[in-house]
User: Fold this.
Amino acid sequence: MQTIQPLGWFFLDDEMKHFLSTTDYSRTELQHLLDQSAALKQHPVSDVLAGKTIALMFLNPSLRTRTSFEIASFQLGAHAVVLEPGKGAWGIEFEPGVVMDGDAEEHIVEVAGVLSRYCDAIALRAFPQFKDWSVDREDRVIRSLAQHASVPVINMETIVHPCQELAMMRTIQDHLGEPDQRKLLVTWTWHPRPLNTAVANSALLMASQFGMDITLLIPDEAYRLDPQFMQQAESQAARSGGRIQVSQDIEQAYRDADWVYAKSWGALPLYGQPAQEARLRAPFKHFMVDEAKMALTRNARFSHCLPLRRNVKATDGVMDSNDCVALDEAENRLHTQKALLLELLGGQ
Amino acid sequence: MQTIQPLGWFFLDDEMKHFLSTTDYSRTELQHLLDQSAALKQHPVSDVLAGKTIALMFLNPSLRTRTSFEIASFQLGAHAVVLEPGKGAWGIEFEPGVVMDGDAEEHIVEVAGVLSRYCDAIALRAFPQFKDWSVDREDRVIRSLAQHASVPVINMETIVHPCQELAMMRTIQDHLGEPDQRKLLVTWTWHPRPLNTAVANSALLMASQFGMDITLLIPDEAYRLDPQFMQQAESQAARSGGRIQVSQDIEQAYRDADWVYAKSWGALPLYGQPAQEARLRAPFKHFMVDEAKMALTRNARFSHCLPLRRNVKATDGVMDSNDCVALDEAENRLHTQKALLLELLGGQ
Amino acid sequence: MQTIQPLGWFFLDDEMKHFLSTTDYSRTELQHLLDQSAALKQHPVSDVLAGKTIALMFLNPSLRTRTSFEIASFQLGAHAVVLEPGKGAWGIEFEPGVVMDGDAEEHIVEVAGVLSRYCDAIALRAFPQFKDWSVDREDRVIRSLAQHASVPVINMETIVHPCQELAMMRTIQDHLGEPDQRKLLVTWTWHPRPLNTAVANSALLMASQFGMDITLLIPDEAYRLDPQFMQQAESQAARSGGRIQVSQDIEQAYRDADWVYAKSWGALPLYGQPAQEARLRAPFKHFMVDEAKMALTRNARFSHCLPLRRNVKATDGVMDSNDCVALDEAENRLHTQKALLLELLGGQ
Assistant:
């Protein structure tokens, strides 16, 4: 087996770093990860992380993220421990100073402390609670974990999904080369339930760092993303030479796009009110990606984070065409997460 | 660690092959697997599949199959990812062309596609739904998976259980040597619930390829197995020099048997009607394997796929006798599955 | 990777041994394990157990025990298979001779037999049922498993928790050196539910083997531990030069203590009657470990097996002080369990 040496990221020699959001990293640092991913795809198996361990904590179910992280660890010689505490709920206290005579049996201080003694990294999936966006937007679960851990913490999807961002950008570069000024359409699509905004937030955050010309297509103002992400993406675009516009005009949005990225999410003004949100959403099934819309683009590729409901978010014709690269993006989850593990765990 | 080279199966150089049913394989090919198993039992640990991965998908629970596959993978240097989507149900769409606005979040095309990108093989357990045999007998879940996967798919029990067949035949050969013309009794036994016919189907399919003289002992015509398996077994027996007869005469069936294999299953004409099936089944508790019946045999060995309800399917006396080889058969699950992995994953 | 040779325990050459309770081992044998643990902490990764496997069966949930055993196995080159049959219940028959026409699908004879064919050791967590202490005190589940297994069985907590004992004593020795005659306070604390006595039983059993001067602080006679453990601890103390006293006087108990170990448990006379037990327990919240109590000690360290409810069992001030070594004890679970695996699996 060939051993692949990690790139010498400067910050890893200086201080332990988490991977909570790509916005904590520069474009140069992110490109290092993407370059490393391409090398790892060529040489998938090594023992460079022999003896290392990572805890994968899923507060919400996962097939793709779990499988790709578990295999990424194995193919580098490391071992992933999969933990599913409470299946969605987690009897963990996050507030400091609380008298813990309620449901929570353990405080995040001890959870983070113990796992930091056992493992070389902790990865966490913790979806929002879908009750109060003013609470969920603070992303407190993973931030508490990171605050109290003494090993790197990796975000496997909370209100952003930075691992998906790496795979998305790796796939864009695989197919388009340099992403600067290329036209990315991020289109909302209908779905029977009001979903998490994480992947949409992340698509904007990543593409804006890489100078893309982004159009966010939404059916109604209520589907704008949270200002904290819109503003962050806009300021990143200003630095990178990219651009962000929000549109409700399907034809204009698809016109000349180089890349179409679809995702469904719930309207934040109706967060926690699924019945009302469903009524608002109902008239917009025609946002589904279909062949007619794709014909407006500049031979764009189509991708999605998966899972995808066929003939709801995109037609069979789009999914089964040669332009659909969703499986490539799924595969890149594996390669990019390996690069991430190598950088976070292999730096010493 | 000693490295064991896989036998050079011809078809693996030509095309990717699944392991859905032993009927897709010739006796020569199956015997290769059984010979390989014996060698692997002698040299259990190697790194011949280093870096390889397999997804084990359980739509139904498992201890034995999961443990034996997970350890088989580990002892060959590979890694098994255990997935339990939905615990019995699976929110997956199998029909082509459907508008997926119901429960299913993902289509089998993408599930198979993504896992094929991550793993070198996919193993699946998917029990029938026990509602409509005309649907379940088509075994659509695993056939859809195999159709859309680009890596080998292994059947860990659907309406057949070919991995159990390998272990059964390995155990027969360990104890009896050549199986041709040896008398195998496959006896129905009572159980509180109407169980899957898979192991019974499989016992017939495997034994008929190896020229055995098979008696299927049932308490009533309603307990005949599905014609697709009966006819397949009969045509295999015709080619191999074996024989199949169906009997309702306990004494005649046990007389001079070399091997007694017990299994319980529900009557197919009452499939999906458990209360009526229970009434039909009620008078037949005396089909339990006991010492008196075993005394009619030619010093036969007794085996079962496990789990087994003691003093319901077989008496303590039978289970604790030296003639009971059920643990040997369970152990052979490990060795035969290693041979299977080696052939399907180690061929290149 | 450096290979660490196991110490040459005499009994391993003679016969297979289980690890059900530390009382089956001499102080010399236990000290061997603790010394081995310290060496393993310095050299955590090796391949000394390459190809070996252990089944971890959890009838009750676990994060800490599961993670530490899984990583311990990996870092020694072995593989742990995590099994969670039935999530709390277990459809297993333990009685010999039963007609198994009820819920149980399998007998412990076959479960133990099959896992012994697949694995080099079996570890089990099986909490008591909290209905009838006269039944639970016999610890039948793990004893049946050990009786029928042909590989070592390890107790991951039943009505004792010997793995926790090893970590506790390793931590005491790390901080205090020789434990003989050092004053150990094992203090009951309030908790919203009546918990298992296992850790309290185990603290007494281990400390009494190592000559400690033990005070068991309880709020009421009803919180005395089962006589089988009290008497065993007393007879061990008599041999080791240690001492055990039971006290209801908080101030006297804390005075001059070298080590404070906290645990909550339910009163055995009200076992299976949680409402009545809650009334008995209600007035005793002031047994919480706080700074004022700790000030009475001889600069004692504080520890706990975790999870711990902050400001219920111990104050934030105690938990966040430099004297709290609960994370050290949690970490020592990993090192001591490695020593245990090495001794039980590496002896040949």
Q: What stands out?
A: Chain A has 14 helices and eleven strands. The radius of gyration of chain A is 20 Å. Chain A has two domains: 10-160+331-345, 164-329. The interface with chain B takes residues 1, 44-45, 61, 63-64, 66-68, 70-71, 74-75, 192, 306-312, 316, 319-320, 326-327, 330-331, 334 of chain A (CB under 8 Å).
